[in-house]
Structures are given as structure tokens and as C-alpha cells.
Fold this protein.
Amino acid sequence: MSAAGTTGTAGTAGAAGAVHVERGGPGTLRAAAEVLAAAFADDPAVARLVPPDARRRHARLVALFAGDLRSVGRDGVDVARRGPGGEVLGAAVWGTPAGDEPAWRHPLVALRAAAALRLRGLRAARRYDRVVAAHLPPGPCFHLHDIGAAPSARGLGVGRALLARRLADVDAAGLPAFLEATTPASRRLYERHGFVAVGAITDPVAAGAVPMLRPPQPPPA
């Protein structure tokens, strides 16, 4: 798996130029959903929701992530571009302290999720959310739901740039950030940004997922 009303940016040098991060908007929703669908195509957690051999799998994953993006609103979405105004290379979906309720409570999102996941996948997704939620810290926090880069953009530092931009907001708010790592590679990335594993998940629906917390960071000296 923010400062309301802001449109902050961050950049990092990559082999093909600067990666520019900004708040997502209606014009980037489809591209962000496409990127996340491609990024999570081989993710083990997603494979339990929409099997690799499912018909129209990519379209169903795009619909699923489009619902996630809509559920958090503009302030919960960051997109990485190949320079200002360039193609969308990556996206991150955050639950913010203003509200991080389950996506299933949003009627439109619930309908899209049902269409994308079908009944079996929808039940698994709801159970997954409940299992993960049990590890959330008490009180307000930022919750990273999804983050991914287009396969063609891997190695450009997209994930690093996306995390750095939002974690600046997290630190300014003096709050913790939470996520669950679903692969060893993502766990290593999060550890480099101050996240530490908290507890373990034993439920088969989330097998391999590691809940991670980044405690509030002290202000710079």
C-alpha cells in the first residue's frame, strides 16, 4: 500500500531525466490506474484477488486501482511524471489523517471493486483489509495503500521520489506512516525510508505481507 490543498513537487535525477512528483488530478486518474495495474501484475497479494489466468485481467486491475484512486480523493494521490507535464511513470495512493475509511464504504468504489474482483475476490479483499487494519497504530496516521512504477520506468527512482514527496508532509504533520510490504524488494525500499516491521501477519489471505510503521520523525536540528 497530506497537506490539503497543496500541489508540492519533488524531483530526482534518473537515466532519462528528472522525475517530477505532483498531486494527482482527474486528468491523471486513468494513466495512474494503468501504471498501478502494470506494476502490481505479478504481486502475490493482487494475484489472490484477481488470478493470473483471469479473463480480461488487466482491464479488471485498472478498474480496481481506479476505484482506489477515487476513494482517497485528490489529496491522497501523488503521481510521478517524466518531467513537468510528461508521461505518468508512477503513482502512490495514501489514506490521510482526514479520513482513511475502507474503500468499500464508497458506493461507486464498491461497485467497481465488485465488477473487478467478482464475489470471491471481493471477499478476499475485504478480509485482507481487516487483517491489515488490525496492525494500524492508534490515532491519526498516513496509510500508504498502493505505490508503483511503470515497468518501463523501473530504475529511475520513481518509488523513491514518490515516497520522499509524501513523507515530507508526514514529517511536517508530526505523524506516523503505515503500510504493508508485499515483496522483499518493497520491504527493503521502505526500510531505507525509516519504516520498521511491526508484528506479523499469519492469515493466508495476506500471507507474506509485512506491516510496517514509520514513527513520527524529530524535526531537523
User: Anything to note?
Assistant: Strands lie at 10-14, 17-23, 77-82, 88-95, 142-149, 177-181, 196-197, 210-214. The radius of gyration is 16 Å.
